[in-house]
């Protein structure tokens, strides 16, 4: 196996992984605070990609327009922020409509309404932009940098940079602001937090706001990285991102980032597995077809040895 | 029973008259509607073959079955009439009962007549919750509270038992008589207009004579049934039971139960505030349902006309959803282990029969198999497929025993993703994306299993469902079932009470997977092939939705949930576009209005959207599911329940004689 190829895939994996990490953050935050697998989260991300395209179109940017200088930065900033705000508002709306009435319902009821929400968002995406892949405007002229044998594009760097900045900002917010403290306290013990004067409902809504906003940003950089989107990408990507959140230890912010990056790398590495039908080592049809199977197999293996994920705390069960 | 009742049998007075009016009307209206719709034509076909032409060949076997159906139907309804009149305590008003019968019998009947079986019943699932909601709102508005329970905790003396018996006989007799007269009037009108031939008219007159006599005799039977459900004074004077343990009378037992439990047990007793919901009446409903389902292929053409085969095929498909829901209910509902990859076991079951029951087997192993013998292997292989699936259930369960809650969910999800990928990509063995073709149907002597006659599949899936329900009920009530519920409620408490967590969880996974294997084998045999597209995460989610919507942990609930979800997806949403193209339907203007705004709009595009809205609405208004299990209902409405009054017990709990005094299973 070629070492250069491995390094090259590592770069791709890092870029993909940082998108997964951004989405995984939304899953992990919501789970940490109300113990709900928010299946609609992946579809919020998909809506984010569509919103970004719409904003680009508003600026008259079509598929192959290449911008530069101040215009480029302005348009990108507005598109990213627009996607984030739109998704954040959507996230809050979903929380109010589908989850808040079920706060004290049996555990699986909000899960089913999350699935319902996911189905609704998918069809909204379908009605809005049609059933086929649509191009995401490639506003940034692609530049390749060669570091030794590895090629890294400016878009890869941008993707990684945006997600790192957002993750650092989130980490700062969680650990150092009043709101972050309120979120952590609600996650730990909702009743006790309420007794201490934390407005629990507001904190939960805010969590959805932030998580969905990150999904919007992920939608924007996903478009830059992959160049096209369609209504059903959210579900599959959301599944992988949720897996990432679990891998890192669900409810754990740093864990979600780590899990996302790890899964991105595993996925890109699995494309290196050769096709066994040509003889020798490999899997039928090559590793790409098996990527999801490999991700989940590794996940199961890791969970067998660390039942609470990589960074999850092994809390002794309360009796 | 403080009311004094006249004992003269056929001259009902006072409260017996009220009860008679209440129940005879409540039962007659639906029965007459049913008769006008299809019952009469079944009867006519039996009495005078050849007069009813429905475009189907009515052979002698069909006629016998139709006759059996119609006789059992009238028998059971007459028995029910007698039972209800005897069992009713008379405390609920006539109006309330009539509204209930209207909503729960007439509305489904009319919807089914107008829209077909599945759509009609599925729409009821929408109408009923709305009714509950409105009823509760109205009750709140007029400050109405239903009569308090436990009123029938009285032993009946001999005189009262005779009154009860008389009421039952009167109920059945008057019901049968009035029914006979109504039918006679209808028949005379038809005869006068010449659309009824003489044979049938003689039959109708014969029926008018026979029905009252049968009603009188059946009344005796229903009196006997009702009397078996009374508290009798004799029971407690029995002293010691057969095992030497002191026997406790039912009344005594009820008195020491908590108010909630006692209220549930009191449903069994006669007289009763809610006779329609008593266990006695439920037996009759169940009999009616079983008879209807068993003879459905025969009576379908009488009720719905052309297209029996297409409908039967659809119901056969709905059947394996029921089995899947029942199986998933074991894992999720009983044992509380969230399984998001249940489709994997279904896929394993499908491929298990698909690979052995098709030419693929000889192709892979090189063993030549006589293709005409292949169908016979279906019977052992349905068990084989189930056992293979169960084996994989254990395989998945074993490494995940330490995981809790949603970590387990994600592992099952992962398993559900891996298995279809394996089947898809190992195309050397499974034919990959093309799937398997030429999978053999089952074989049975004298039965034609071709695709154009779905009746054999209908009975096969019926048998499989019956087996699954039986197995589920038995497991739920077994030691294992109680262990499942225990670990669902509290794993640590269960394990300190001696529940073996490892075995119990593995059994849950194995049992759940077993039923998925059964459904899978049936699915591939019915389809005649296996397509790898049927096993996505979306399918697992649909199965989970069936269980949760129906009522998690409740066997009737998940059956209803499976049928409802299947009906919504396959019948209602699939037909919206057809309806939209039809100018006479109510969907047409709606569709036109939307198309003005969104030009490319079709209902096919928003199927998932509508389904999603339904999921959310059901969850918000009925988070416990359509038919929740009794235990869950109690948990969710704890606020309404009275506390157990310890002072009301003869022997306080914990005192030495308590357990000897009370023997409650």
Helix-strand blueprint:
The complex is a heterodimer of chains A (319) and B (665).
Chain A: H1 3-34, H2 41-58, H3 69-99, H4 108-129, E1 134-135, E2 144-147, E3 150-153, H5 154-176, H6 178-188, H7 190-195, H8 200-226, E4 228-229, H9 233-248, H10 253-270, H11 286-305
Antiparallel strand pairs in A: 1-4, 2-3
Helix pairs in contact in A: 1-5, 1-8, 1-9, 1-10, 2-3, 2-4, 2-8, 2-9, 3-8, 5-6, 5-8, 6-8, 9-10, 9-11, 10-11
Chain B: H1 14-47, H2 60-87, H3 94-115, H4 117-141, H5 158-193, H6 198-227, H7 233-236, H8 250-256, H9 259-266, H10 279-294, H11 296-304, H12 308-334, H13 343-356, H14 360-365, H15 378-397, H16 405-425, H17 427-430, E1 436-437, H18 455-476, H19 479-489, H20 491-496, H21 501-527, E2 529-530, H22 537-550, H23 555-581, H24 587-597, H25 607-621, H26 630-636, H27 658-661
Antiparallel strand pairs in B: 1-2
> At the first level of CATH, what is the class of chain A?
Mainly Alpha
User: What's the end-to-end separation of chain A, in Å?
Assistant: 52 Å
Taking pLDDT < 50 over at least 5 consecutive residues as the criterion, the unreliable ranges of chain A are none
**Whole-number average pLDDT of chain B?**
80
Radius of gyration of chain B, CA atoms, in whole angstroms: 28 Å
Structural class of chain A: mainly alpha
Enumerate the strands of the largest sheet of chain A in spatial order, edge to edge or round the barrel. 1-4
CATH architecture of chain A: Orthogonal Bundle
Shape type of chain A: globular
Instruction: State the helicity of chain B in percent bands.
Output: 55-70%
């Amino acid at each position: 196996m070629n070492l250069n190829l491995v390094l090259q895939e590592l770069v791709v994996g890092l870029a993909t992984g940082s998108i997964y990490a951004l989405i995984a953050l939304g899953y992990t935050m919501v789970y940490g605070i109300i113990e709900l697998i928010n299946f609609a989260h992946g579809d919020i991300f998909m809506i984010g990609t569509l919103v970004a395209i719409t904003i680009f179109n508003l600026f008259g940017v079509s598929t192959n327009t290449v911008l530069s200088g101040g215009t480029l930065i302005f348009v990108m900033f507005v598109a990213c922020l627009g996607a984030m705000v739109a998704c954040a508002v959507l996230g809050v709306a979903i929380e109010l409509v589908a989850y808040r009435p079920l706060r004290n319902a049996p555990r699986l009821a909000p899960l089913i309404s999350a699935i319902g929400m996911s189905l609704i968002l998918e069809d909204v995406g379908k009605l809005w932009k049609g059933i086929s892949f649509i191009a995401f405007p490639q506003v940034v002229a692609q530049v390749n940098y060669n570091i030794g044998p590895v090629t890294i594009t400016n878009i890869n760097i941008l993707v990684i940079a945006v997600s790192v900045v957002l993750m650092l900002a989130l980490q700062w917010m969680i650990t150092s602001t009043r709101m972050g403290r309120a979120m952590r306290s609600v996650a730990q013990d909702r009743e006790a937090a309420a007794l201490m004067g934390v407005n629990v409902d507001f904190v939960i809504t805010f969590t959805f706001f932030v998580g969905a906003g990150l999904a919007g940003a992920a939608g924007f950089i996903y478009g830059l990285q992959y160049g096209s989107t369609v209504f059903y990408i959210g579900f599959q990507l959301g599944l992988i991102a949720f897996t990432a959140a679990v891998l890192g230890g669900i409810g754990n912010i740093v864990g979600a980032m780590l899990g996302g990056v790890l899964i991105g790398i595993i996925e890109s590495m699995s494309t290196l597995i050769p096709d066994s039908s040509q003889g020798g080592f490999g899997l039928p049809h090559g590793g790409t077809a098996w990527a999801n199977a490999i991700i989940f197999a590794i996940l199961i293996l890791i969970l067998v040895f660390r039942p609470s994920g990589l960074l999850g705390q092994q809390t002794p069960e309360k009796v | 029973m403080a009311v004094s009742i006249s004992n003269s049998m056929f001259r009902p007075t006072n409260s017996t008259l009220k009860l008679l009016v209440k129940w005879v009307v409540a039962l007659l209206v639906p029965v007459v509607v049913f008769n006008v719709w299809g019952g009469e034509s079944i009867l006519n076909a039996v009495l005078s073959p050849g007069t009813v032409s429905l475009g189907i060949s009515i052979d002698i076997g069909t006629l016998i079955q139709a006759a059996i159906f119609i006789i059992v139907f009238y028998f059971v309804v007459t028995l029910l009439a007698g039972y209800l009149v005897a069992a009713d305590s008379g405390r609920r008003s006539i109006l309330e009962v009539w509204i209930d019968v209207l909503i729960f019998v007439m509305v489904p009947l009319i919807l089914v007549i107008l829209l077909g079986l599945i759509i009609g019943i599925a729409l009821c699932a929408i109408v009923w919750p709305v009714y509950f909601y409105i009823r509760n709102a109205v009750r709140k508005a007029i400050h109405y509270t239903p009569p308090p329970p436990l009123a029938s905790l009285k032993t009946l003396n001999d005189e009262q038992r005779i009154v009860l018996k008389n009421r039952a006989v009167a109920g059945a007799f008057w019901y049968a008589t009035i029914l006979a007269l109504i039918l006679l009037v209808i028949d005379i009108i038809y005869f006068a207009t010449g659309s009824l031939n003489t044979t049938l008219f003689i039959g109708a007159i014969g029926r008018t004579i026979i029905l009252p006599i049968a009603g009188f005799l059946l009344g005796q039977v229903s009196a006997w049934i009702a009397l078996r459900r009374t508290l009798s004074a004799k029971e407690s004077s029995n002293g010691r039971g057969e095992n030497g343990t002191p026997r406790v009378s039912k009344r005594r037992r009820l008195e020491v139960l908590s108010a909630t439990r006692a209220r549930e047990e009191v449903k069994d007793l006669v007289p009763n505030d809610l006779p329609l919901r008593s266990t006695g009446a439920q037996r009759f409903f169940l009999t009616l349902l079983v008879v209807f389902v068993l003879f459905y292929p025969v009576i379908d053409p009488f009720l719905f006309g052309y297209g029996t085969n297409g409908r039967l095929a659809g119901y056969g498909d709905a059947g394996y959803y029921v089995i899947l829901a029942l199986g998933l209910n074991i894992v999720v509902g009983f044992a509380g282990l969230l399984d998001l990859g249940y489709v994997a076991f279904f896929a394993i079951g499908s491929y298990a029969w698909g690979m052995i029951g098709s030419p693929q087997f000889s192709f892979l192993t090189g063993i030549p198999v006589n293709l005409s013998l292949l169908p016979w292997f279906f019977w052992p292989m349905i068990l084989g497929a189930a056992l293979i699936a169960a084996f994989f259930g254990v395989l998945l369960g074993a490494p995940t025993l330490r995981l809790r809650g949603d970590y387990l969910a994600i592992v099952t999800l992962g398993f559900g993703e891996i298995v279809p990928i394996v089947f898809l990509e190992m195309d050397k063995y499974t034919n990959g994306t093309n799937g398997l073709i030429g999978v053999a149907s089952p074989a049975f002597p004298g039965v034609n299993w071709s695709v154009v006659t779905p009746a054999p599949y209908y009975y096969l899936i019926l048998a499989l469902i019956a087996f699954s329900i039986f197995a589920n009920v038995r497991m739920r009530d077994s030691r294992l079932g109680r262990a499942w519920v225990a670990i669902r409620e509290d794993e640590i408490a269960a394990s300190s009470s001696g529940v073996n967590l490892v075995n119990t969880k593995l059994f849950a996974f194995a049992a759940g997977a077993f039923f998925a294997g059964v459904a899978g084998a049936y699915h591939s045999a019915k389809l005649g092939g296996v397509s790898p597209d049927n096993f996505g995460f979306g399918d697992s989610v649909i199965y989970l939705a069936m269980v949760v919507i129906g009522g998690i942990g409740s066997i009737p609930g998940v059956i209803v949930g499976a049928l409802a979800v299947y009906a919504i997806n396959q019948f209602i949403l699939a037909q919206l576009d057809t309806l939209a193209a039809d100018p006479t339907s109510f969907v047409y203007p709606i569709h036109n209005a939307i198309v003005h705004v969104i030009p490319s709009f079709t209902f096919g595009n928003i199927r998932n959207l509508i389904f999603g809205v339904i999921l959310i609405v059901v969850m918000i208004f009925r988070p416990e599911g359509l038919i929740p299990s009794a235990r869950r209902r109690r948990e969710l409405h704890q606020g309404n329940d009275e506390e157990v009054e310890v002072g009301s017990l003869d022997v306080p709990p914990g005192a030495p004689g308590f357990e000897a005094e009370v023997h409650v299973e």
